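Recall that a protein's primary structure is simply its ordered list of amino acids. Everything else, from secondary elements to tertiary packing, is in principle encoded there. The following example makes that idea concrete.
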Amino acid sequence: MSTTPRPGRPVRGSDTGRPVMAALDLLGRRWTLRVIWELHQGGAPVGFRDLQRRCDAMSSSVLSARLTELREAGIAAPTDESTWRLTPLGDELVTAMGPLLAWSHTWAERQ
């Protein structure tokens, strides 16, 4: 059975599996947001080794686990060329993260 968080199933912090709790569980996993961000940068599909380099040489086992979870969640997908890309749902997630990016710049300016 998959351990990828899904809406409607119990997840860390929620027995009900409310969609927002499932999303927080998935996105709160170590390296997940970084993988999404790096897949988004440049817009072109990225190979496993290049993605690993972009993520500060994270371990291949962790990257593989995160890509599997993101694939199962419908956020990322492999291409025929052995590369990875965001799905339309993944692109929507990056768009939804836009306000957080803007806030991070404000925060940085005030430090």
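Helices lie at 19-27, 32-40, 48-54, 60-72, 88-96, 98-109. Strands lie at 46-47, 76-78, 83-86.
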